[in-house]
Write a structure and sequence with these properties.
Two copies of one chain form a homodimer. Chain A has a three-stranded antiparallel beta sheet with strand order 1-3-2. Chain A is built from five helices and three strands, in the order ααβααββα. Helix content of chain A is about 60%, strand content about 15%. Chain A is of the alpha+beta class. Chain A has a single domain, classed as Arc Repressor Mutant, subunit A (Orthogonal Bundle). The N terminus of chain A is likely disordered. The longest helix of chain A is centred in the last third of the chain and has 21 residues. The relative contact order of chain A is 0.15. In chain A, strand 2 and strand 3 form a beta hairpin. At the A-B interface, helix 1, helix 2, strand 1, strand 3 and helix 5 of A face helix 1, helix 2, strand 1, strand 3 and helix 5 of B. The structure holds a DNA duplex. Chains A, B: This is ArsR family transcriptional regulator. Chains A, B: Keywords: DNA-binding, Transcription, Transcription regulation. Chains A, B: GO terms for molecular function: DNA binding; DNA-binding transcription factor activity.
DNA sequence: CGCGGATATCAGCATGGGTTGATGTCACCA
DNA sequence: TGGTGACATCAACCCATGCTGATATCCGCG
């Protein structure tokens, strides 16, 4: 795994947690599917701010949207989060095996 | 898990991946322990920049340091990465179980 | 059809964090 | 002891991103 600016793991991690409000939204969506109006209510943030963060999550492929009339419900994509968890598990494994190797200076 | 600005999961994720260069450093440290001079060489970044990012990782408890004379080696803490992976696995589980719950508007 | 509600987007502004060059401190060597 | 190398830190600068108020668009209802 060569992590670069375009690495999906880094991008997903930053999309999920790169901002405190967005991390809060993620936590809320992990409890139930919610529409924008609920997220605005729960977080106390302004509507455009909430919409902006939902857009970041949407474009990162971390949420699905389901329009219901005037309301838009968001679902956290468990499969995408699980992929990230797996990738991090792999990183931990590699780090474990990397111990003891000392490159000379 | 109530993710907030102080949440260790969010903080670890951001410390690991919040900047492309830092993510790159993390990937390098997952292959072997390296000293600052190696990381400067491998990444092509300036020394203060590399030091700054190492500091972020250090203060987040994600790397251990081992001074060897004038050289400082860094080790990615596999256990810390594994904890993050576990937490994300839990988040994915919860998101999976959250499907189907629709709060009325 | 007109109005109100939900929300996605736009444009402008402020701030935090990354990068840079300079500096300070410690370790090593002749 | 003095000089050099490694690197942690400092201070200044810049830019990407989050936040705000305004606007546009779509949907539902009387």
């Amino acid at each position: 795994m060569l992590i670069s600016a375009r690495d999906p793991v880094a991008e997903a991690a930053v999309a999920l947690f790169g901002d405190p409000l967005r991390a809060r939204i993620v936590a809320l969506l992990a409890t139930e599917q919610m529409c924008t109006c609920h997220l605005i209510e729960e977080t106390g943030a302004r509507q455009p701010t909430v919409s902006h963060h939902l857009r970041v999550l949407r474009e990162a492929g971390l949420v699905d949207t389901e329009p219901k009339g005037r309301f838009t419900y968001y679902r956290l994509r468990a499969e995408a989060v699980a992929e990230l968890a797996d990738a991090l598990g792999g990183l931990a494994d590699r780090a474990e095996r990397a111990g003891g190797h000392y490159r000379p200076c």
